[in-house]
Automatic annotation (TrEMBL):
Native species: Suillus discolor
Protein name: Aspartic peptidase domain-containing protein
Biological-process GO terms, alphabetical: proteolysis
MF GO annotations: aspartic-type endopeptidase activity
Family listed: Belongs to the peptidase A1 family.
Amino acid sequence: MIGYDAVSLAGLTLQDQYFAAINDTNTSVAQTRCSGIFGLGFPLNSVIWTDMFLNQQQVSRSRSLRRDVVSRIDAMRKRWFDKSVLGISSFRHVDPPSYQSMPQLKRQVTTSSSAIISSFGVSGPFIPRLVSLGGLASPMFAIALQRDTIEIGGNEGMLSIGGLPSGVQNESLTWVPVRQYALQQGGLTQDASVEAYPIAWEIPVDDVFLDGVKLPRSQLCSSNISLSALIDTGNSLIRGPPDVISYIQNMLGGPHFACSSPHTLAFQIGGRMFPVDPRDFVNQVHSGDAQVCGANLAQTDVPVLGGGGYLYSWSLGDPFLKGVLAAFYYGSFTGLSQDPPRIGFLSTVPSDAGQRLEDAVSAASAEQNDLPG
């Protein structure tokens, strides 16, 4: 059920903001006294924007969609939303290679891309709508996540909207471009001045390392697909290609290993190394035993060239994000060639993070307690 009302967040207010009305949930939203949840991605990935856009197009005779296109989008929307409800929308291994994401079906719409982009300011999600309407000092947001396991602390949990946090300079971050999808990759119908469009917060990755050793590239993925990663605040793990995840686990000695042995998984992005804090890389396996840990890793599907889906092979969730300040810059929806989207990172992992993990494990073991969490 989609409704609309004035929505305010951190002093920012929008009238007639569309949102889904929920009367049943399997999350802890109600218990934690949250008013709801909202996404920070591009509007093309919004279920609500899709519903509103299709509805507005269907009732407009001058800009109607072909019925066959509408039926395909409607069917894919239901499939994608079912996946999202299950909490698995950030990885794709449950579907065959022929699977096409809902955003890709949206982009088969016969309506011009300019009409689609102009709708972002009417029925887009809250933050992208503010961007579209010019309601932010800068079209961006930044996040930092606090560590809530192993050793409580680290970054101050923070969401900064419309600019970087106070005291942080733009040049202190390493900035990389967001992958844009051309028409042949499932992008929007192209305007003369724009040949590709961003779909998700997906960025190029130079290489991946474990304890200083460069990991091999996945043999399950075409060498013609450049290495990239989704930066996903809705993902509680780090997900990667099945063969590379298995390679990592073999390097660790198996799925379980000593908590007190720090390991550093690092991603080289924009020529700079961004390590996952060893304290965020692990989780305690058994209650009452602070000595045995597992890695916060999971397998995901590899991208398929020409398969119609996303092209990233890694999804970097909370374990990665707890060790950085991450800034997400939307750029200009109407002038991508002049002001393209990008993501900036500033590592916050201390040089003695490994020793801090060892100390936390020793303290928990001495008191015969579990690691904090």
